[in-house]
Write a structure and sequence with these properties.
By secondary structure, the protein is an alpha+beta fold. Helix content is 19%, strand content 44%.
């Protein structure tokens, strides 16, 4: 099967119940302060990876960490994975700064994230 290639997992979002406590733990683990620090999202960048903390699972209602595959064309990749059997969980949406995200579930219900930076 051929299609648009993924660029790898470079973003992982973690739902957290206590943002301040989680921020302290992840800062200690990663050895860097957060790059983004707001009441609705705390984001770290280390080694080319983005690690995000989302209080209460955010508007998407995450209940476990979600790995986001970076892709050059999110619409094309969404079409490819749904044609292959994935189900759209959260359609493509702009989350600011030209970044677009979507999530799908695989046949076993695992959530897979797609992200496109402009």
């Amino acid at each position: 099967m051929t299609g648009s290639p993924a660029q790898g997992i470079r973003t992982v979002l973690h739902p957290v119940s206590d943002l301040a406590a989680a921020k302290a733990v992840y800062a200690a683990l990663l050895g860097v302060p957060p790059e983004n620090d707001s009441p609705y999202y705390v984001g770290f960048v280390v080694g080319g990876q983005r690690i995000g903390l989302v209080p209460g699972g955010g508007p998407q209602g995450m209940t476990s960490p979600v790995a986001y595959w970076h892709v050059p064309d999110i619409e094309a990749k969404l079409a490819e994975v749904t044609a292959a059997g994935a189900t759209v969980k959260e359609p493509v949406r702009d989350v600011g700064g030209g970044r677009r995200v979507a999530t799908v579930t695989d046949p076993d219900g695992n959530v897979l994230g797609l992200i496109q930076d402009r």
